[in-house]
TrEMBL record:
InterPro entries: AraC-bd, Homeodomain-like_sf, HTH-like, HTH_AraC, HTH_AraC-typ_CS, RmlC-like_jellyroll. It holds the Pfam family HTH_18. PANTHER family: ARAC-FAMILY TRANSCRIPTIONAL REGULATOR (PTHR43280), REGULATORY PROTEIN POCR (PTHR43280:SF10). The keyword Membrane does not apply. It comes from Sphingobacterium zeae. Residues 173-273 form the HTH araC/xylS-type domain. The keyword Plastid does not apply. Keywords: DNA-binding, Transcription, Transcription regulation. This is AraC-like DNA-binding protein.
Length: 279
């Protein structure tokens, strides 16, 4: 099933005991805010528990739906790529919103939002909800600014959670965010590409990275790849062949060799142990 939307922006809400849609794709982007309730968000074969105050981002490449355990109040902010890229100025300033929405790695785990930030999100999103209850203008500068604030805070939290805790430099966040965004495209993570992207001499980039991250670029990338592999092994919906293809390995054997060298045991052993330990 593929849902379609043609308006640049639409805001809606539902209170449901059972989600009104089956697993589906869509031609638009979507931010889902949980005002109340409890259940599971299933997205791209990953199952993420949700509760009050959680936020999820969905793009057209995603397949998702919700399994509701406790009656849930959803707030949906639906938009097309044209909303944030309305003119040349906005394309340059706000292209990061579309990059954030399309970041596959962010979809595999729930954003960890503490109570302080949950309170901020609740106030801003409640203001957006109340505005949409009366009238919604696609060209409202006020509404546009609120949505930019919401996505900006989400981006800030997600980038901070992806960094080693001891490093908080802005340059680290930029590089880290880039690596996580393009982890599925290894050709974009070559030193020559990264050095050019962040205006650092290729011969110095490795030294710069290790100084700021406390580990080598290769080790950092491989650690994240291991995390992505294990996320897929946990989901039980991915075959080794599918995991290898998605993460850029030549075949299952290449994937298994990479994983075993890093962990000391095979990915199939890891999955077997997960199955044994599950209730």
């Amino acid at each position: 099933m593929r849902k379609k939307q043609f308006e640049p922006l639409r805001i809606s809400e539902f209170i449901e005991d059972s989600f009104h849609l089956p697993p589906h794709e869509q031609n638009y982007y979507e931010l889902v805010y949980i005002r109340s309730g409890r259940g599971t968000h299933v997205i791209n074969k990953f199952e993420l528990n949700y509760e009050r105050g959680d936020i999820f981002l969905i793009c057209p490449a995603d397949m998702h739906y919700f399994k509701i355990e406790k009656k849930t109040h959803f707030l949906f902010i639906l938009f097309t790529d044209g909303y944030f890229l309305q003119n040349k100025r906005n394309q340059k300033l706000y292209s990061w919103v579309m990059e954030l929405m399309s970041d596959k790695g962010l979809k595999e785990r729930k954003l960890n939002i503490d109570e302080h930030y949950r309170l901020i999100f609740s106030h801003v999103l409640e203001a957006v909800r109340l505005y949409a209850d009366t009238a919604i203008s696609q060209h409202s500068d006020w509404l546009f600014d609120q949505l930019i604030a919401i996505f900006g805070l989400y981006k800030q939290i997600s980038e901070a959670q992806r960094l080693p805790q001891q490093h908080e430099l802005y340059s680290d966040r930029s590089i880290s965010a880039y690596i996580h965004r393009y982890i599925f495209s290894p050709e974009k993570l070559k030193v020559s590409i990264l050095a050019q992207k962040f205006n650092i001499a290729p011969s110095y980039f490795g030294i710069y990275f290790k100084k700021n991250f406390g580990t080598s670029l290769r080790s950092y990338i491989n650690t994240y790849r291991i995390e992505l592999i294990e996320n897929r092994l946990k989901s039980k919906a991915y075959t080794l062949k599918q995991i290898a293809a998605e993460l850029g390995f030549t075949d299952e054997s290449h994937l298994s060799h990479f994983y075993k060298r890093a962990k000391g045991f095979s990915p199939l052993y890891y999955r077997t142990q997960l199955i044994k330990s599950s209730p």
